[in-house]
Structure formats: structure tokens, C-alpha cells
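ok so for the tutorial part 2 we go from a plain amino acid sequence to predicted C-alpha cells. step 1 is just haveing the sequence, like this:
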Amino acid sequence: MVYLFVIAFFMVNYTNSFISRSRIRNRDIKINNAISDFEDDGYSHTFKESRVVKFFDKINILKRKTPGTLILVRHGESEWNFNNTFTGWVDVDLCERGRREIEHAARILLASGYDIDITYTSRLKRAIKSSWILQREGNQIYRPLYKSWRLNERMYGELEGLSKPDIASKLGEDVVQQFRNGLFAKPPPMKENHPHWHKTERKYADLHPDQIPVTESLQDTMERTLPLWYARILPDLENGKNVMVVAHANSLRGIVKYVDQLSDDQIRKVAIPNGIPLVYKFDRNMKPIVQEFAVPPISGGFLEKKGLLRDALAKEQELAKFVPGYKMTDNRAPPLDPLLRSLTYLDLEHKLSALASGNISFTQQPAAPAIPPAGTMLSGALSLGAVKSAREESQILKKPVMVIIRHGKTEHNKLGLFTGWEDAPLAEEGREEARAAGRLLKAHGVEFDMVYTSWLSRAIETAWILMNQMDSVWLPIVKTWRLNERMYGCLDPHESDGFGLATHR
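step 2 — the prediction. this is what the C-alpha cells look like for a chain of 505 residues:
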């Protein structure tokens, strides 16, 4: 059963410069059989604009003559990293410190001038959400992002969900360290009655049961990354694309081992900390160039020393606890540009003036809109909220369903500004609308197989929030300019007078 989820939106005047010859060449070539159709994750679909793609492909051949940059980022600290629990394939979320780590990593990349063409990540939410944060903070939310189980963390078998200190006290520290760091040692295999049995998880429904491990060695984990490396990542790099891989300690070690041609003994000693970008550059023969901050035996360089951010966050907590009036920073809401900030304050002042004169009250309700409000969901002519009975709803959801959702409210929407392709971010009200829509869809038992959205951040972020509420962040997302909002020409992004005319203030 296939559910198709479409989000229609607005914005971003983005050129096709990220479309390179590797995508054109690969789209008509059958990818390695080890990669499933589902794992294509919209890869081929994104680049079907044949004539346009071929035109820009020729340009890129002339423009980019050197390999792209490879950036490896381990996800931010997870809730189970924090409490020292074996995690593996268990889909735990980022903790607060992990979110801060990844926000910081994005700013390091931005300050260093890196422009990411394409991102690869795993099917686990701690890596996917780290990728989202990196794209959002780097103002590259519209760039392609592909998810592959081959980048999942090592599968720890029966140990998943158990405390590392407790297991060490029962089995001995040496045994646990051998499970964690030994190249060929495998933890006891997971049994079907394990609370985190993965073979029945929907996110892996496209895989053959034999592909879903019940335990893995470090060697197994590193080897399963290679088909993705050869089929996708390496060709992208060879064709000049800057590639970011956001994954897990052990799957990233597999890539490092291959790139630097490390021995079995050398790779055991390589550690990849949470949230610190590791950057590789290559010569024309795809040999890694030793970076300025490289630490042998690897040739890539970390962009920051391990532990600096965590020390800073610990200091911030100390200040918040002991210094009266100190507030911990939270920059998750997108900053307003000067024009939008001024208009927001002006709108608030007008409302306060009207309130003071008795013309309005905070309890007044706005008139019914002529178009469906943000967050409204329609399936054909039927709103999910209007289903008359559970039986009717069950019959509807047994058929293929397409759900169309307008993005949540933006600051431009609130101020009555023409938006069009202007990339206006969601307002907090818009985020709450998206969360409510996700909860409603989940309550009705809707499950999607594919998500389509525009190149505009308000649409993409609405999709992310919905997927998070539905616990399906692993779904493939296809981003296309064809779902962008109507382009309003010279009216973008001037203010509307309420009658569809521009006031050009």
C-alpha cells in the first residue's frame, strides 16, 4: 500500500549548479544490486530534467576540474550516549547537548566557507536530525539529502539497550572492550523476543531479512558501507561535488579506513568524536591530501579540537546556575532580517494601539479564510478530520492515498507580505501547526512511503516536523522547484494592502 505525501510551497531562487555530470551518468546506469529501489531515496527522480541537466552538466565539466571535498560528521550526542547505553540500531533521539553540538558544527563549516552539494546519512533519527540541523544552520536546507541503512551504526545484538557499566561488571571490562573495539569480535546475537528486534521495523521493509543483522563486528559494519561508497559517494566526489556524510562512529570508521588505506591495527585506534567535522581533500587521482590539522594515521583534518564545545557548554550551565539573570542561548529560531524585524515590531505596535483604543481585543477571532489555512490536510475531496466513522476511515486508508499539505505559517504570512519564491522561514505558530498536523495524521493511522516538497525552507521544515511527529523521519524526501509557490515578480517580498495590491513600503 502506497501513501503519497505532497507538500506544496514557496521560495528560493536557486540555480541548478549542484547538478553535475555524475548524476546524469549514473541515473541511466543500474546501481549496484546491493542498493535497493527504496534506498534510491529520490536520488534518480531528483535529476530527471533531461535537457536542463545536460546543459548544466556541460558547464560543470568546464567549471569543476578537481575532486570535491568529503566532510564526515558523527551525529550529535544521543540520549543513550549520554547515559552510557549500548545503542546500535535502536532509534534514539539526540539529547539537548547533542543538538547544540551539531548546531556548532554547522557554524564551523559555515565560517570555514564550505558549501555542501549533497548529504548522505543513515536511517536512524539521531543522524537524520543532525543532517537537518546542519542543512538549516548552513542555509542549505534545499540541498539533496539521502538516507541509507548502510550508514547505520554497528548492530550490537543482545547488548542493545543495556548499560555499558553493568555489562562490564558482569562480563568483565576486557570482554566489553573487545566487543566495542575488536575488529572481528561480535556481541551475542539478538533474539526475536528482544524488545528492540529490528527485522519487523517498517523503515527496513525494503530489505531482505538476511540483510538485517542480528549482531555485527566492526569489520562487518565497515564492509557494508562500501557499496554505497562505490555507487554514490565516490562518483560524486570524482565529479567535483562537495559531499557530507552524517553518520555514526563505526560506519564512518569504515569510510576512513578505505580512504586512508589503514591497516586493521590502525583503524582500531581511530576515534571520531560527536559533532566535529572531519574534512578530506583529494588530488586528481583521488588520493587524500594531508590536511593542516591531520592527526596520523588519518590524512583528514578535524575542524576543532575535541572537547572544546563541551567545556563551553558546561561553563554556560554553570553561569546559568550561579549568575542572576543569565540566560542560556538558544538560536534555533531563524533570525529575522532587518526589514522583517521592523515590520514585525510595527505590526505589534499597531495591535497595541488598536487594543488601547478599544478597537480590538485579544479574544477576537479572525474571519474564515478563503483558502485552507496552513496545516490543513486534504485527501482528494475528503478532509481526514471529516471522516464520519472508523469503518469509513479504515476503508479509505486501505487504498493508495495522496495527502496535500500547505506549509505552516511564516512571518511573511503574519505580516501580509507577498512571499512567492522569497525563502521565508516558518514562524513559531507555523511550527505548531505542522506539529498538530503530524499528530492528526498519526492519530488517523496514515503511513507514508514518499514525501515530495519544494525547494523552499518553509515547506521542507514543515515536512520535517510532520515526519518527526509521525516517527518516520527515515522516509525519502524528493525536493523540487516545481512545487515552489507562485512567483509574484516585483511584488516579492513587498507588503500587501489586504486587497492583493502591493503598497511598496
